[in-house]
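$ fold --in a.seq
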Amino acid sequence: MALQPASGVRDLNPQQVQRNHELRERLAGVFRLWGYEEVSPPRVERMDTLKAGGAIDSRDIIRLVADEPLGLRPEMTASVARAACTRFQDRQRPLRLWSHGTVFEGRQADEGGLCIEENLHCGVEMFGASGEEAELELLTLLMASLKELQLPLSQPPRLLIGHTGLMQMLLQAIAPDQQQAYRSCLTRLDRLELQDMLSSQPEHAHLLTWLDRRGAPQDVIRDLQKAYPDGHVVKQLDRLIAHLTPLAEETGVVLQLDPTFQPVFQLYDGLVFQLVCQGLSSPVVVARGGRYDTVVQRLGAKGLDATGLGFSFCVDDLRDLPGAFAVNTEQSDRILLCFSQNRTMEQALKIQAEYHRKGTSCQVDHQPSKNRAEAEQRRILFGCDTLDWLGD
């Protein structure tokens, strides 16, 4: 019998589970305040839904052996968007939903087998909101959520912002059949390959400048405005950054605008962003999101309702940040009720019920103790804070 969990997954101890619950409830409290309603999408979906109309490679999805093509969700957006376009299609727009649950990512292990990574996510989705006001709400909600988490981080988080329209603007002078090659170089930050391509097309040498042009949003926007004075996407980002800057300063977040930033999953077709924190040894992406109108349209939405945007926190990554697990939170006193050899389990259960009616955590030791000293030793073994001794 195999006694180890499957490759890539792990058992969580009670403290980790409790911390996950605390983080999730803090996020849920913010989402509810903003009018988002909870939904619970299934872990198993049809492959055509999980691929989000081709936005997610099927190799990133863990397939199930079944009579129809099914898989485990690698993210939650596609599942929530499917529900919004079907069961909730008659609901008033904008439709605000939030959800939490496990996502599953498959990757090749070092020894060649399948490694399954299992993570708890919690996030929001908004459907039927096409204007810039939706992006303003989404980014403000992101800042409010991060502030509510109260993570004692040693280094400030960094919000990396991009826009698929910026990439299209940078590549607009390049022949359509060559754009994908240039896009790949820019998103992978592959300077050598880009220089090699530019050796035969020196008229596109300005792309090398944008490869290095990331940093303070105001500075990057200023350069974009000079190079593309009529760019609508630049004006949109200017408005978003102007609103977001004071919120980021208040929350302790560093903003970074990157014209070449594109996410791994090709879900997004507008604003894209990632929230990055410093982990034990390297930066960790703890939240990601953006606008994904095309995905909603591929799932059947029409007209003004065919829009979607959202973000999701990885709760497991938040919990494992340095110092984040040690946040001081109010813990209820745990009582161990022990009884002597002259008392009975039935008597102990009646006393336990009194504690429970008051909302106090109390558990009963099933075996009688010889004396109070032995009961005190059992309290320590059980990890309880207080002993209630039911003696003679």
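$ fold --in b.seq
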Amino acid sequence: MTKRVRLREELSRQRAALLTSWNLALAPLSERALYADPADQAASDFGHDLAIQVRTRVIARLKQIEHVLMLMQTKHYGWCRRCRKTIPYARLVVQPDTRFCVACLEFMESGR
């Protein structure tokens, strides 16, 4: 099995896991409850805000995975956009949506 196939399978597994957890959390968020006690109100508001943040992050990660899976279907996936060399597999495992090798990324971030 090629490294690209293994990476695609891992991303597909992650996508399936996120979709499963997302389906469990699809129930609409309850309306914000109103409490007389400020501490109870703060706890309720915090829980509601946290649920929204979790959903936002799950959606962002799913978009990222979908983008990478589409990129993998092109011949450009896995090649540095700056130096045109192959990006090491270990880097793709850590950050599958990367477009630059570590050397080029460090060069660009140094501002040179």
